Amino acid sequence: MNDYGLNIWGNSNFIIEDGKLCLNTPSKPAIIDIVKQIRDDGYRGPLLLRFPHLIQKQVEQMYASFAKAKKEFGYKGNFNAVYPLKVNQYPGFVKNLVELGKPYKYGIEAGSKAELLLAMAYNNEGAPITVNGFKDKEMINIGFIAAEMGHNITLTIEGLNELEAIIAISKERFAPKPNIGLRIRLHSSGSGIWAKSGGIYSKFGLTSTELIEAINMLKKANLIEYFTMIHFHIGSQITEIHPLKKALTEAGNIYAELRKMGAKNLKAINLGGGLAIEYSQFKQTTSRNYTLNEYANDVVYLLKTIAEQKNEPEPDIFTESGRYISASHAVLVAPVLELFSQEHTEEKLNLKKKNPQLITELYDLYNSIKPSNALEYLHDSVHHMESVLTLFDLGYVDLQDRSNAEVLVNLISKKAVFLLGNKSNIDLSKVQKDVQERYLVNFSLFQSLPDFWGLGQNFPIMPLDRLDIRPTLPASIWDITCDSDGEIGYNDETNPLLLHDVDVEKEDYFLGFFLVGAYQEVLGMKHNLFTHPTEATIKITQSGFEIENLLESQSILDILEDMDYNVYEIQDTLNERLEKSSLINDTQKKQVLGELYLFLNDNSYLKTIE
Ligand SMILES: *Cc1c(COP(=O)(O)O)cnc(C)c1O
């Protein structure tokens, strides 16, 4: 059976039972049952499900791996982690994360004023806050306020001008001060599509010359005791461990050098984020060559070695992994609205008494196809279809002939794929590209999978049920935006996704899009004014699940208001125009007004044809 690569990307979070995709917890609830319960209350369109137990799992694994590595190597420095808010700032995620992170004193990383204020409101008592990114005086001021409130905060400076501002502000403020971190510019960088954050050409960090100057400035301003951390971040989704090791060696040596220059309170190295997850659902495109345990062991071992060599204390370790912590907690579920060639059934065939030769041949192929000739016939039919289209352009066959050819080729390809079974066959996969089925799915790729649009990042996709039935149709997924980029195409090499042949007018068919909890929500854009989907938090209980914090997708009026339209003006104008219409009478107008009111207060995803 097709398990859609669960054993590659699933991290044991899901299992298949009775053909349904279930959460791998003792009560094993099926995702489709959760979805049905929500839809029974009238919610339509895409749903974003959040699973706090999967956040907890990632947080626990991260702390456990580092604890194990520290024990194994007898490492004396502490391990600390902060969650970078930019990866997902939605309250449905952040509030759960903070709560679950309490026992670990799991902290927060902020990269803007808004994120910093959010961190100051929600961060766990005694847990660290780190601040990265470009800062103006106001932002530094907020950092001082955080320290004055009792937060354990470190302002990591990205350039010497920020350090100058800190020195100036510290003279004006009250006694408590934030700790100071320096972001170092490494000559090593990461690998993969998000590797731009590291390296000497990166946007961030101090060069060696600037580091020396920073130490001198700090000493002169009597602030050197507040300098506690160096920081680097070599990019997101680091696909190989080697560049990280190089970066760590470099950072470890800088740490030791700075301490020797008199930075006696420098006690921590912050590795930034970048810990990768496996997004691929196909063996041929897997992307990550290390595990969390290896990562933790390498970090601890390398830092221990350098500290020993340089005769300096083993530094505290800080990590800022975001993707690793948040990606798996969110699953987008979207209903399939239509299969484009669904009408290509035998009933739609309307053969003439006398048909063009090619159509007769196609009809014969359809009737005599069997396992031994299926591939050959499939090839022939695709070839015939091309000829029919040429003849149509030249005016030799008519629209009815063309329709018959389309129906026959679709019927042949469905039958062929079925007859050929699971055999992986290079020829078959090539033909599948030509006979792919287009699934129209009720979601916006721009809103819910922006990294697919922007970077070609694939996310695992699978149906939520029928997993005991062999899928036979090579699938490309179309979203409901009017943009031709809103498509996840079938690709026989990198994305050979097969889905089921279902009649969605008779039965529901839902697709799950997985690992969408990192970056996608906040990067998502309102193209065509499709907004963040309806979301719910799913708490797993002993006997099943509970649906909490159901938040419906924004209404059309809310979306327009967000764009600074005056929504009263919109409503009044619609009203006036309706009043002025002489095409319907007053009773009819009253009804239409009521309808308009409902539409404006509903979200913009499709619902009636579901
Ligand atoms: C984006 C970012 C992170 C998070 O990176 P992930 O790849 O999501 O772990 C951590 N630290 C800094 C400074 C960042 O800019």
The CATH homologous superfamily name of the largest domain equals Alanine racemase
> Using only CA atoms, what is the Rg?
29 Å
Total number of beta strands: 20
What's the number of structural domains?
4
N-to-C span: 28 Å
SSE layout and pairings?
Elements: H1 6-9, E1 14-17, E2 20-23, H2 31-40, E3 47-50, H3 52-73, E4 79-84, H4 91-101, E5 107-110, H5 113-122, E6 128-131, H6 137-148, E7 152-157, H7 160-172, E8 179-183, H8 208-220, E9 227-231, H9 242-260, E10 268-270, H10 292-310, E11 316-319, H11 323-326, E12 330-339, H12 357-368, H13 374-394, H14 399-420, H15 426-434, E13 437-441, H16 445-448, H17 450-455, E14 461-463, E15 473-478, E16 487-488, E17 498-499, E18 510-513, H18 520-523, E19 534-540, E20 545-551, H19 556-562, H20 567-580, H21 586-600
Parallel strand pairs: 3-19, 4-5, 4-11, 5-6, 6-7, 7-8, 8-9, 9-10, 10-11, 13-15
Antiparallel strand pairs: 1-2, 3-12, 12-13, 12-18, 14-18, 15-16, 15-17, 19-20
Helix pairs in contact: 3-4, 3-10, 5-6, 6-7, 7-8, 9-10, 12-13, 12-14, 13-14, 13-15, 20-21
Pyridoxal-5'-phosphate is lined by residues 84, 86-87, 109, 132, 233, 236-237, 272-275, 320-324.
Compact description:
With 610 residues, this protein is an alpha/beta fold. Helices cover 41% and strands 16% of the residues. The chain has four domains: 6-49 and 331-340 and 436-551, Lyase, Ornithine Decarboxylase, Chain A, domain 1 (Beta Barrel), CATH 2.40.37.10; 52-324, TIM Barrel (Alpha-Beta Barrel); 346-432, Methane Monooxygenase Hydroxylase, Chain G, domain 1 (Up-down Bundle); 567-601, no CATH class.
